[in-house]
Design brief:
By secondary structure, this protein is α/β, with parallel strands linked by helices. The protein contains 2 helices and 11 strands. It folds into 2 domains: 54 residues; 112 residues, no CATH class.
Length: 179
């Protein structure tokens, strides 16, 4: 599991944003108090770092949990668990073991992150997706619109039998659903 704050990408992007703020403030004469922005960003980072350092607090999730926040994790489907989420992180969720005996719903959400979902094409399922400035790639490699809703049915979908509805919401993130 990799911590976001140990990533060179995070710190590089932070320095670029701060540099652009200084540049914009002096070049285009924006009314931006760069010092206040810098202090605000520093306080937010400190708060996130403190939350992330408490492993038992619910903000640092690992493998086999239902959510990933500010980290990377591989998750497995747990029967009875209906909600899985990724926030400011990356995760892979293996839903290939779903075998619905009765109609079920699994809710997935991704906010500012990457979510990779593995499905079994033999499973009786439908996908209902909603994106807000995000990307959702379905198993047939079609992409959902950046804003809006779309749906996908498994090749084995038979509505006369029990099936699983997978509802996925993506906000400023990316979800890839593969077989």
């Amino acid at each position: 599991m990799r911590n976001v704050f140990s990533s060179g990408l995070f710190w590089g992007l932070l320095l670029i944003v701060l540099g652009l703020l200084f540049f914009a403030d002096s070049y285009w004469y924006f009314d931006i108090n760069v010092f206040k922005v810098f202090v605000g960003i520093a306080l937010v980072i400190l708060g996130i770092w403190i939350m992330n350092s408490f492993k038992g607090s619910g903000y640092h999730k690992g493998e086999s949990e239902s959510s990933t926040i500010f980290s990377d994790a591989d998750m497995q489907y747990v029967p009875g668990q209906q909600k899985y989420s990724v926030v400011f992180g990356s995760s892979t969720l293996d839903l290939s073991g779903i075998n619905p005996q009765t109609d079920k719903m699994v809710e997935l959400s991704c906010v500012f992150g990457e979510f990779h979902i593995k499905l079994n094409p033999e499973t009786n399922f439908e996908i209902v997706s909603n994106a807000a400035f995000g990307s959702i790639r379905m198993p047939n490699h079609t992409k959902s619109p950046g804003v809006g809703s779309s749906s996908f049915n498994s090749p084995a979908l038979d509505r006369s039998k029990a099936f699983t509805t997978i509802k996925i919401d993506v906000v400023f993130g990316e979800a890839r659903i593969n077989y």
